[in-house]
Amino acid sequence: MSRLTTLRRSTSPLATDRPPRPDNRTAPTVALLTTLGILVVGQMYTVLAMLAPMADSLATTPTQATWTATAFGFAYAAGFLIAGPLSDRYGPRTVITGGLMGATVTTLAVSAAPSLTWAVTLRVLQGLTAATFAPSAFSYIAAHIALHRRGIALTCVTSGMLAAAVLMQIGAQVVAAGLGWRMVFVLSAALIALSLWPVRHILRPTAAPDSTPSLLQAFAAVPRLLRRPRLVALYLATITLMVAFVAVYTAVVVAGPPGVAGDNSALLALRASALPALVAVPLLTSVLHRLAAPVRVVLAMSVAAGAVAAGSALGGDVRFLALALLVFVAAVAAAAPAVVEIVHTMASHARGAGVALYACSMFLGASLGPQLAGALFGQGFGGILRVVAVLLVLGTLLSLPALVGRRHNR
């Protein structure tokens, strides 16, 4: 190969897979994005720990109050389809900053909701503004984190987003018990506002590529990606995974076994029991990455299905249920970053749009989780978990085409 040919290839705008310049901000960047993942994504889950007090305050029932979670989730999922292309066009830091400013206002507004109708409406607005974070964070990692560190960065950030379901429920339960549910949103708004300073000082602007897509081109990438069957199957598998994840935690609250249901201390302990898994998975990144991302997804989905099935059979024992939840959450935490890796590869030059569709499917599933648990309430805790286990088996089957794609790409 001639020197001229080498030079042309190295400077070509199509050479998007070249590693980014060394960045000594990797550790603070990952810490910031992980923390923001907990705080921002956690707004989806805070209400699950406050269904009873919110229902009393808003003159409704806890089952009806689950719509405050579903409304946020649907808006959050839809917002990704806007945020991803915006991130491709204007850069992740700009979109994250604007979204955090909007989320501060809308989160504070939820605290003043006088009725369930207003609470649901304001949660829709909160979800739309919060949706700017996840796809922009993933795009930022792809653009600024060196390739050999990208796996641990993705694992930490996705684990933070999953940990939000546990940590923010615990925080919301504690704050609501002492200060009332409205103060949960006031404190959340304050923390989101405070995060603007580190975002501006730690995150770097993304350098414009040689050929920046127009806004119309960035949005046009979304339907093009949906014409790829293996990607669509992966998105559907993600929906089933997140339906299962949120449905299990909702079932614990609304239909939990006798040793847990109605006992705030037991609920707090059960939620906290999954935290070791969310810490362990990032620490085991180097071990997990010995397996290709498609293999990790299929294995993790299979383990998740087995853990939930076991929990449905022996969930009456709180200690066994805690162990089943630990394994289940670990499997979900291992699957999520592997899916992002596959999407990054398959979406190629439309990574912002590809990740936006992933994040959309992720929280579309999270939005449906509470409704599935509510609809199956009459089946009891074990019945809900059995349906969830079947759903995870379906998700495993949907993830299999990614393995076929891996063989074709060799």
Features:
410 residues; mainly alpha; single chain; Growth Hormone, Chain: A; globular
Model description:
- This protein has 20 helices and no strands.
- The model is unreliable at 1-22 (pLDDT under 50).
- It is mostly helical.
- Helix 2 (26-41) packs parallel to helix 9, helix 6 runs antiparallel to helix 7 (116-130) and helix 6 (92-110) packs antiparallel against helix 8 (133-144).
- The protein has helices at 3-11, 26-41, 51-57, 62-65, 67-90, 92-110, 116-130, 133-144, 147-179, 181-194, 196-202, 215-225, 229-255, 264-272, 275-283, 285-288, 293-314, 318-347, 351-375, 380-408.
- It has a single domain (27-204, 215-408), classed as Growth Hormone, Chain: A, CATH 1.20.1250.20.
What is the CATH T-level topology? Growth Hormone, Chain: A
| Alpha-carbon distance between the two ends | 23 Å
How many beta strands in the DSSP annotation?
Answer: 0
The structure class reads mainly alpha
Please report the first level of CATH classification, the CATH class: Mainly Alpha
Instruction: State the fourth-level CATH superfamily.
Output: MFS general substrate transporter like domains
Order of helices and strands: HHHHHHHHHHHHHHHHHHHH
| Percentage of residues in strands | under 5%
Number of domains: 1
Radius of gyration: 21 Å
Indicate the CATH architecture: Up-down Bundle
Number of discrete helical segments: 20
Largest sheet: none
Q: Give helix % range.
A: over 70%
Average pLDDT over all residues: 81
Segments where pLDDT lies below 50 for 5+ residues? 1-22
Form type: globular
